[in-house]
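Reviewer 2 asked us to include a model.

Predict the structure of this chain.
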Amino acid sequence: MIIADVADFREAARRRLPHFLFEYIDGGSFSQVTLRRNMEDLATIALRQRVLRDVADLDLSVELFGQRFSMPVALGPVGLAGLNARRGECQAVRAAERAGIAFTLSTVSACSLQEVAAAAGAPFWFQLYMIRDRGFMKELLARAVQARCSALVFTVDMAVPGTRYRDYRSGLAGAPGPYGAARRFAQALARPAWAWDVGLWGRPHGLGNIAPLLRGRTGINDFFAWMRTNFDPSICWSDLDFIRGEWKGPLIIKGILDPEDARQAAALGADGIVVSNHGGRQLDGALSSARALPVIAQAVGERLTVLADGGVRSGLDVLRLLALGAKGVLLGRAWAYALGAQGGAGVARLLSLIEAELRVALALTGTRRIAEVDQDLIAEGLP
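Predicted model (structure tokens):
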């Protein structure tokens, strides 16, 4: 099929991936209200069209946390992304490097920190969850330092996992024992190209960074059982002291939707935040990132670096979030779809599309540099 945009990557991924894996990538929590809001609210943001502004020479580059990137886009953390293609996170980090942007490795990746570091030619970001076992967290942060990770993205909106009904219906979660395994096996057999690529070619996929905690239990059910019992619901702001004690580099707090929480993050010395509702996968009915972002950016934008994610499906969406106050935008599902559809080549193609779309959007709003983007770009009187 011809792939022209993220929607095409999504359809290609749906055709190639087993049903349970596509549903995991594509789904949100409960009734998926927030998942839909992320895209719908972002689409309502009207931009000012400006003309005769000399946009022959555009500069998309941006500096974030002491690094210069080719555009204000990063690959955000996606759990189990490495199952979408053979050694998927390794393919994705190489695509991000070639595009000149940051890559963020999830705590619950399929490929470990060490494996991704060996595949990478430059430092990347690491995303951390608060886990009950502080000793393991300390060891994990030490491995991130050893892997030359240049920033830590600490996700704080997952004290407990959200309820994701699509995962239950697909057989990914909630169907323990032989029945669930048989359903997933049948779905994998229905996607032989994926099964050969991920399951048979090269080393078998595992559960990367958390494998030591599972003690040889590497099934999908083992992973979800671990998530239900090992994420720490007692997490609070004082836990940042523990993180800061083990991590000396830039610290980015991901999962902020309320300006009071943003002020608290700034007061406690975070270097950045990500305005995010976890892609609509946690609290269903929460604000979309587009709705939450302007107030948060106004509250703390001069004290720390504000990033955002949620519902981004084009370079135009990237510009919308920048106009609402973000300094950079994390892609999530978009790159997971691309990886699932075409592997690393798909991620590279996606980033090329995002860059081209962002260039067009900048030019048609009469903007020559990313540094010039602000709320004046939003059409007055419209959401």
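Residues 6-373 form a domain with the TIM Barrel fold (CATH 3.20.20.70). The CA atoms of residues 20 and 350 lie 23 Å apart. We have added this to the supplementary material.
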